[in-house]
Fold this sequence. Notes:
By secondary structure, chain A is α+β, with helices and mostly antiparallel strands. Chain A is 29% helix and 19% strand. Chain A is built from two helices and four strands. Chain A has helices at 15-19, 41-53; strands at 3-5, 24-26, 32-34, 59-61. Chain A has a two-stranded antiparallel sheet. Chain A has a two-stranded antiparallel ribbon with strand order 2-3. In chain A, β2 (24-26) and β3 (32-34) form a beta hairpin. Chain B is α+β, with helices and mostly antiparallel strands. Chain B has one domain (19-395): CATH 1.10.630.10. Chain B contains 15 helices and ten strands. In chain B, a hairpin with a 5-residue loop joins β1 and β2.
Amino acid sequence: MHVTADRDVCVGAGQCVRAAPDVFDQDEEGIVLVLRQQAGDDRREITEEAAAVCPSGAVRLT
Amino acid sequence: MHEAVSFPQTRTCPLRPPHGYAELTAQGPLHRVEFVDGRTGWVVTRHEEARALLSDPRLSSDRADPGFPKISPRALVVRGQPPSFIGMDPPEHGRHRRMAISEFTVRRINALRPRIEEIAEQAAGRLRAAGPPADVVAHYALPIPSLVICEVLGVPYSDHEFFEDTSRRIARAGSDEETAASVRELAQYLDSLVEAATKRPGPGLIGKMVREELARGEITRESLVSTAMLLLAAGHETTANMIGLGIATLLEHPDQLAEFRADPDVVPGAVEEMLRYASVADTTGLRVATEDIEIAGRLIRAGEGVAIPNGPANFDPAVFPDPDTFDIHRGSRRHNAFGYGVHQCLGQNLARLELRVALPLLFERFPTLRFATPAAGFEPRRPDVNQGLDTLTVTW
Lengths: 62, 396
């Protein structure tokens, strides 16, 4: 699963970091950073949860 | 033509949203409603449509728009006081919100844990000294978030009685004039803190915004005051409501309270369920359509107000089976207690941490904590304000 995040859309709610802390992070300004652009099967569930709880639609999975 | 439904409705039990909303959710996702100014609009009562609309850019948060839903006798806009970012739309909204989010990242909030534990411990000491019996709202639920948000923002806690009272008067104002008078009072106070921070470096988010965004001309002084006012009010009041309701809801469910006490691992999930069940800010999701929107077979016309309350979405049986049951093992974080979309609560991670610290600590320090007066005696608040308990007398 390929993980991207739109830093222009992000509102810094931090929900992705809570759901999948080894896939996402926030920079000093609070905006999303993708730590792993490929999420394997072991992280599929938490990454999908991160996308589901993202309030702004910044997190995209393909 | 469907008959207009009643919204907002007064709670029958202050611990949870009105039962009348469940009937609306069962009937359909959108309902015609008449707001207090006589305009007709919509209320959205299902989770799926609520989330779709809360993330729809064709809905605006501009309170100055004449179609913005008026659900309260208090004023939506006060002359001379610009909106805070909750009243802005993208891209202006994002520009203002981003000035504040660095203080609320998951990492920054997690680093506050030891300090919040210390604050909760001191509050527990003061509660003990005040009773038994004692009001757990006045001595515990309110002082913890109030002191925490003071430290985050850089507001002196010695002024807490003033800003707690003024915030309460703003929320519960009965007319435009009452709202304006209290807003001006709080704005003047916060402006004096901004003034002080321009002369020598000030603490917290206010100090940071004065040094950075105000100094660079990215925000006006009036807008900075509006941001501070929003965060100060939202930061102490909603969390205090949640701590109070969380205590009462756990006391009402002794078996789950026993588990909550015994197993720290259930605390985060229990807090999510408390947030869902209490839905304290269940009338905050208000928008006005800027274009026609077709959804669920209905047509929202441009200019119509849309109320998207959190409570009905959080009790939608399609997402939360058996929604009336409080269940700390529900295991769902998809509630709308903090709203949804770009306006989702900025302070939610702080609120969660405060709840995760304050609730277990209270029940640990007071193992025999119980209601001093029957829970049935709780008075619900008027329906247009954030819900909570004004007092909760406990004994131990």
